[in-house]
């Protein structure tokens, strides 16, 4: 069929009601958001953002309501989509934005593509990777992996991806989203090493929309975390990483077929792991317990 591209849509969307189909690749995926309220009677008040791209650039795509339970888990980073009968509206100004792996990629930030169950009913088709043709010009998924030895030099709030061997995972803890609120964030602390430093990555992992992975993080798994943010704890100058709205977490058993397996730093980590003794690493691992972070000072005077 006759296709359009994201760049052409941005220039012509106000003068059109119907749009030609789009062929795009998913580069980023947000957590699933529930926006239900007791006074509003909605069947499926869910929403999820994706960043999609073609040869012309990158744009946000929003999956709405009952399409979320139907499609959210099928739409993975790297998936190629053919979209027809979608809607377009001006971008929501307060949305978070992931940091693209390719800094040269053009971002179309004024509009976003909306996928709805009606008005109009969107048609979504997943194109299997083996059928994707190079002449379509779809960008590859790119990452910003860092090693532990590079972490201490990165500025606060810098976005990065990491891979490491889990040596510690704490119990799941809860924090109130707002004071006096009944809503909680669920999170756990983890340590991961990559062989480039004596220090581990300290990871604050909030439960994203991947409960199956979040519950199964345990010592000796290969952990990949994408779109993490660098946080500097001022009092102790300790650097740790926390998940963002677009973070994805993968552990052993989930890596196969993921786009990051081609990344040079991921391959270097795998090579380092092959040189390690599993028995030696197991002796250094810890699971569970209370993890006070940031650590309190060692004397009341400093406190």
From TrEMBL:
Coiled coil: none annotated. PANTHER family: RPA-RELATED PROTEIN RADX. The gene is Radx_1. Transmembrane segments: none annotated. InterPro entries: NA-bd_OB-fold, RADX. This is RADX protein. GO terms for molecular function: single-stranded DNA binding.
């Amino acid at each position: 069929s006759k296709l359009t591209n994201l760049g052409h849509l941005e220039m012509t969307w106000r003068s059109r009601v119907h749009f030609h189909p789009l062929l795009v690749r998913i580069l980023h995926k947000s957590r699933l958001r529930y926006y239900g309220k007791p006074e509003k009677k909605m069947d499926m008040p869910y929403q999820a953002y994706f960043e999609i791209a073609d040869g012309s650039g990158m744009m946000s795509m929003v999956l709405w309501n009952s399409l979320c339970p139907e499609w959210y888990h099928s739409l993975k980073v790297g998936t190629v989509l053919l979209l027809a009968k979608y809607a377009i509206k001006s971008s929501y100004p307060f949305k978070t934005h992931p940091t693209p792996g390719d800094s040269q990629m053009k971002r179309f930030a004024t509009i976003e593509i909306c996928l709805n169950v009606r008005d109009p009913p969107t048609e979504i088709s997943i194109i299997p990777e083996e059928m994707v043709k190079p002449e379509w010009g779809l960008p590859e998924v790119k990452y910003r992996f860092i090693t532990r030895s590079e972490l201490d030099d990165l500025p606060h709030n810098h976005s990065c991806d990491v891979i490491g061997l889990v040596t510690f995972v704490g119990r799941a803890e809860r924090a109130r989203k707002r004071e006096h609120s009944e809503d909680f964030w669920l999170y756990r602390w983890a340590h991961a090493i990559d062989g480039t430093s004596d220090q581990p990555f300290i990871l604050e992992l909030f439960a994203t929309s991947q409960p199956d992975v979040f519950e199964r993080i345990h010592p000796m798994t290969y952990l990949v975390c994408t779109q993490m943010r660098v946080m500097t704890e001022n009092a102790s100058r300790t650097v740790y990483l926390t998940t963002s709205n677009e973070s994805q977490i993968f552990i052993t058993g989930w890596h196969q077929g993921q786009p990051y397996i081609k990344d040079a730093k991921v391959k270097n980590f795998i090579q380092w792991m092959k040189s390690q003794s599993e028995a030696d690493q197991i002796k250094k691992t810890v699971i569970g317990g209370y993890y006070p972070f940031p650590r309190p000072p060692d004397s009341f005077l400093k406190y």
